[in-house]
Write a structure and sequence with these properties.
Layout lengths: L1 H22 L3 H4 L10 E4 L5 E7 L7 E10 L11 E7 L4 E2 L5 E6 L2 E9 L3 E9 L4 E9 L1
Antiparallel strand pairs: 1-2, 2-3, 3-7, 4-5, 4-8, 6-7, 8-9
């Protein structure tokens, strides 16, 4: 009798988990596409590249989960594709970042979507962006309410 009950519980647990696998989707499908039309911030890299930063779902970073779009162009305004980007959210006054690792997805025409931005507390944050090898670093600074 115990084996029958245990077998039934195992079967139930397996069947209950099946829909979870069917619901999973590619990470790219989960990244928002509704970025603000106006850039939240702009800066230039040491190599002369121009960067524009946009946030989703709003026009500015908010406490909690965020995504960002970076548009990177040459000094002449041409899109820069095929770059390797590393993006780290950092809270300078506390000397720490976020425990969530960001992912960067190239979208073409110089656009890169950064997912996994977790601003878990209010205050001054930096978005540290390393572009290519050797890295050309840029920093966007902003306040999270």
């Amino acid at each position: 009798m115990k084996k029958s009950l245990l077998g039934s519980l195992v079967l139930f647990a397996c069947l209950a988990c099946l829909p979870l696998g069917a619901c999973s989707s590619d990470v790219a499908d989960q990244v928002p596409s509704n970025f603000a039309p106006a850039a939240y911030g702009t800066t230039n890299a040491g190599d002369g590249s121009h960067l524009e930063l946009r946030f989703a779902p709003g026009t500015s970073p908010a406490r909690g989960a965020n995504a960002a779009e970076l548009t990177i162009t040459t000094p002449a305004g041409a899109p820069r594709d095929g770059l390797v980007l590393t993006v780290v959210p950092w809270m300078p006054s506390h000397g720490h970042g976020s425990s969530v690792v960001t992912t960067v997805t190239a979208k073409g025409t110089g656009k890169y979507v950064v997912d996994g931005l977790q601003f878990f507390m209010p205050g001054r944050w930096e978005l540290r962006v390393a572009i290519g090898e050797p890295a050309s670093d840029v920093v966007f600074t902003f306040d999270v309410p």
